[in-house]
Amino acid sequence: MKRPLIHIFGGTSDARQICVMMDIAGIDYSLSVATPTGAQQAVSIRGEIVIGRMDAGGMIEYLQNRGTEMVIDASHPYAELVSQNIVSACQKLAVPLIRYIRPSDIDAVEHPLIHKVATVEQACEVAAGLGSRILLTTGSKQLTDYVAHLKGKTVLARVLPTAEVLAICESCGLSVDQIFALKGPFTADFNRAFYQFCQAEVVITKESGEQGGFKEKVEPCLSLGLPCIVICRSNHQFSGEGITQAHGLEEMAQLLINA
């Protein structure tokens, strides 16, 4: 019996693990990533890699032209607009959608040094009152917003080592002493040494779950006595006809078995 033609949206490590599951099971698929860097990280998968960001209209055109029969949304947990576009495209075409939900560790972490917030603006407001050297482990996507809201503070950015990302850092006015171009995953020991090396007084991170090394980022803060500000995920739930939720890789594996 012919396998359903599946398209996956996501340049995350979770998305790549889902691809590996499908490779092992012999399921045909294609994978969308936003940038060439995402393609480099997925080079070992067997499926076709499609590079480039798509809006809802672009997704509809691509999925329709390919005759896609199922979509998996394994995009970044904070890429809410991307997920909304995927939902819109799938509902427009009546294509079944599996939304991969990365498990969260946020409820298991409670400590006076941990400050949970909902937005970048709130994170900056809290950080500004806690220290002068503020380390961002949140990537480069909203770097401009952080810099704008942390005027008068020393912003330290740990970002991916790509020309595009470094250009963003430079456009924000960050100096070479403020840019740390490194690719994870990082252990807790590495992060502890790194926080000490860059003399961070406050750390801002995201609720990235196990795949994003959340605990490895937070635990060193607690051992060093550093305030850690966590930007929590949105509680928005995408639901509707044809949408199935997969909470974690085990649930995703079961859904793929039954696909």
From TrEMBL:
Keyword list (alphabetical) reads: Cobalamin biosynthesis, Oxidoreductase
Q: Does the keyword Oxidoreductase apply?
A: yes
Any Pfam family matching the protein: CbiJ
The source's superkingdom equals Bacteria
Q: Does the keyword Oxidoreductase apply?
A: yes
According to the UniProt record, what class of enzyme is this? oxidoreductase
| Annotated GO MF terms | oxidoreductase activity
> Which EC numbers characterise this protein's activity in its record?
1.3.1.106
Q: In which pathway does it act?
A: Cofactor biosynthesis; adenosylcobalamin biosynthesis
Q: Which NCBIfam families match?
A: precor6x_red, PRK08057.1-1
Supply the name of the protein.
Answer: Cobalt-precorrin-6A reductase
